[in-house]
Design goal:
By secondary structure, the chain is of the alpha+beta class. 20% of the residues lie in helices and 31% in strands. It has 3 domains: 75 residues, Vcp-like ATPase, Chain A, domain 2, CATH 3.10.330; 171 residues, Rossmann fold; 49 residues, no CATH class. It has 7 helices and 19 strands. The strands form 6 sheets. It has a 7-stranded mixed beta sheet with strand order 11-10-9-12-13-19-14, with helices on both faces. A 4-stranded antiparallel beta sheet has the order 4-3-8-7, covered by helices on one side. A two-stranded antiparallel sheet has the order 1-2. α1 runs antiparallel to α3. The longest helix is centred in the middle third of the chain and has 14 residues. It is globular and about 70 Å long.
Amino acid sequence: MLCSDGTKKLSFGGSIKDGDLVIVYEKRDVMKAVKVSETSVLQNRFGVFKHSDWIGKPFGSKVLSNKGGFVYLLAPTPELWTLVLSHRTQILYIADISFLITYLEIVPGSLVLESGTGSGSLTTSLARAVAPTGHVYTFDFHQQRAASAREDFQSTGVDSLVTVGVRDIQGEGFPDEYSGLADSVFLDLPQPWLAVPSAGKMLKQDGTLCSFSPCIEQVQRTCEALKSNFRDIRTFEVLLRTFEVHEGKIDSCQGEEGLSVRSPPCKRRHRSSEGSAMQDSSSSPTIKVRPCADARGHTGYLTFSRLQVSLS
């Protein structure tokens, strides 16, 4: 669980306790969130794991099953939570999240307004960025989604840093009580241009706004709306290319597909003075690096702008 004490840095407790949320790591692309209960067990292809064996162990521990299989128990950091959370809506991923937190200039103590909450992927990272003295006010028009988000924030330990409201920001705008108080505003809406005037009223002088849209037509209309009260308008598309790194053997005369490659001819085996055969160094393990086959492409466009400073 995240410690959100205002006098301390946001961090995880030293050991796993009954009721904590942990990320069970089976392999790189197989992880799940599990709430620890002393009387419960986890069953998977590696065997049966008793939760009671997890309690008291530090996050990051390797635990064994009844069959000798193992998993790792990881802390539910915002990055890992993004990979295992329930998708109630399309979510933002790490590349977009890290980029927008930097461009929105979000730091500890910031007050951030967000709409809409969705699955809470971004909100969890925003909470860590503003901790320990800042706050995130996030809004979603869907009541059940907002309720589910509150439960998730409590599970991940950021509920003291996040307030979830039910409100149609496109139609009603942000609540007047935040007028002139927000350091940053984030919009993830079908028609973000409708919320731009309200966002402008919420921001402090020189405050920053970001709008996330999957279609370029949405970006165009949003930029038109921003021209009246905002400056330094920029749009980005963040494309992340992930590579796989693993150990293997490569024949210097044969490619991975069995085709000839341009390389020096294979050396013959030579016998040492003791008569043992010596193999060419090309047969030793080699580190292979290649792009992942399931790399993500386009997710959306991030449009940033800064509220104009009033000269009056």
